[in-house]
Please model this.
Amino acid sequence: MSTYTVDLNKLVDPAKTDSISGRSYGEGFAKRENIVQHLLNNENIVVEIDPKRVKAINDSFIKGFFSSVFDVLKSKRNVQARFEIQGSDYYKRLFEKNWSILDSINAA
Amino acid sequence: MLLDIIHVIRTSKAGGGSASPFSLVTLVSLAISVMSLALTFIGAYRNKRVELIAKRFDKLCIDPIEAGFKELDKLFSEHGSEKAADYRNSIATKLTEVNLILVSLRSIYPQLDVNEITQCNDTFSEQYFEGADETVGDYLASYLKAKNEVINLLFKHILEKELLLIKWRRPSWWPRHRAKQRPS
Model:
């Protein structure tokens, strides 16, 4: 199974901003990166976050980014199997928690 | 009360099988007493039920949410207008934790619209992260708005969906609402 890498570091510009925020921004970024298409092509996704560059990520960005992903993969377990977060433990936990939230919302 | 009824029946039988006007009045008054007693019991049962649902709601829903918000209150009072990354991350983490508690409530209240409720926190979170020129007062106002909206939606759910106190539900046999005639 091949891997596609999503680089979140390019979303910040140290001169202007050090954080990533916004649900709609997350949705737009997922679209630009064709995340759903990569998943349908049976690729695993690696999300790269350098904690020295990306100082903060807003939880709604994560929800926006993964909303279309959950439409395809349906559950947290499937998302965990297909996504890998390469970053600090803090970001890994933050992503996991937001996957739990999306999992519960999608189960409705 | 049973003895009274037996007494009335005996009296009516002794009178040739037909009840006298007096005994009829007694029977009617007895029936009314029985009905009022039954209604009192139904009322008491319903009140107890409402009380238990409300207590359960407080314990399982409001207490943990308020505890989560208290931690956010503390963060705000400690850091004020500071917008350092660590602080923003703490806010994001706490809001995520409050949202996690909110979505977990679906296991107890399956009809709860967790998407709508968590949206209140998300709106505040975005405003907090993105609003560069806003004052502490602005953040506090939008935070309080989010907090109140969350608690208000939870109360609305419990009153409308769990206690059925506010929203009237149309019974299945009730005629459907007729479509309004459009003006010609």
